[in-house]
């Protein structure tokens, strides 16, 4: 997402927040009162009104019903949702843009913001039932992943931790050349200090994150969130107890991971292995 488009979206969030504040005030409801009616956590209405967060579709519909808006918030949310990301991931993708710290765990695939274009294309191609008929859809998704990767190029980039199960390194996605380039890309980000990389080796056996990928995000002026994902589904959590549980699981798994230098060395060794399989000289 370019700077101008990001600015436009933020302006749309702030407009929604101003409308919500106006309608809530006209209804003689405090932020706390409205939050209770929608069964939202402490301060969430305040985050909506400040443009730091946006309601999901269900919350937008409840706002419409509670404030008798004629469907304004639902229509606004539908408009905001038009883009490159699947429904289950869209909210998490938007939060990536403002996060001050992102901690990633990849169970079987490289996390999106670390993917090269060729690796991402191979993943998306394998996920298509009939690749010949979905080229445009794949191109749109690739554009979305490229936009996400630019979070690392921000003037004030987030602190990024990337913990990868060794399975991510060993699964040959797109062939040896593509996989080798992908692993070297992650190693280069690690060497440049842009991402702190840790590998969870097979030798550790089971670990606290063995069931799912995980993304943890922290912000300057909003509560932390956690995101988990399965096949064509995902779940964004902002409940403090759930986020704390995910943070604890991440910390426990990190304690079983290799140190940074050993992790970077393993990335390069695995890259060379993949490249040799494609006949690429070391």
TrEMBL record:
One of its GO terms (molecular function) is DNA binding. SUPFAM superfamilies: lambda repressor-like DNA-binding domains (SSF47413). Residues 20-63 form the HTH cro/C1-type domain. PROSITE patterns: HTH_CROC1 (PS50943). SMART domains: HTH_XRE. InterPro entries: Cro/C1-type_HTH (IPR001387), DUF5753 (IPR043917), Lambda_DNA-bd_dom_sf (IPR010982). It comes from the Bacteria. This is HTH cro/C1-type domain-containing protein. It comes from Streptomyces uncialis.
């Amino acid at each position: 997402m370019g700077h101008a488009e990001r600015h436009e979206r933020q302006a749309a969030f702030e407009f929604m927040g101003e409308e919500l504040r106006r309608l809530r005030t006209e209804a003689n409801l405090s932020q706390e009162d409205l939050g209770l009616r929608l069964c939202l956590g402490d301060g969430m209405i305040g985050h909506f009104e400040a443009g730091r967060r946006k309601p999901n579709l269900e919350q937008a519909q409840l706002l419409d019903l509670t404030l008798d808006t004629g469907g304004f918030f639902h229509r606004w949310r539908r408009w905001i949702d038009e883009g490159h990301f699947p429904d289950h991931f869209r909210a998490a993708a938007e939060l990536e843009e403002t996060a001050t710290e992102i901690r990633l765990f990849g169970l079987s695939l490289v996390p999106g913001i670390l993917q090269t274009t060729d690796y991402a294309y191979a993943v998306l191609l394998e996920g298509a039932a009939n690749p010949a008929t979905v080229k445009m859809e794949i191109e749109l998704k690739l554009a979305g992943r490229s936009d996400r990767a630019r979070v690392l190029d921000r003037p004030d980039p987030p602190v990024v931790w990337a913990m990868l199960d060794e399975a991510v390194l060993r699964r040959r996605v797109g062939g040896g050349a593509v996989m080798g380039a992908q692993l070297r890309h992650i190693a280069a980000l690690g060497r440049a200090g842009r991402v702190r990389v840790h590998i969870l080796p097979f030798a550790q056996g089971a670990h606290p994150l063995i069931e799912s990928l995980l993304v943890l995000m922290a912000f300057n002026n909003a509560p932390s969130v956690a995101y988990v994902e399965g096949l064509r589904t995902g779940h964004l959590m902002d409940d403090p107890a759930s986020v704390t549980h995910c943070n604890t699981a991440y910390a426990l798994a990190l304690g079983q991971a290799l140190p940074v230098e050993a992790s970077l060395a393993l990335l390069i060794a695995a890259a060379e292995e993949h490249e040799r399989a494609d006949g690429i000289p070391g």
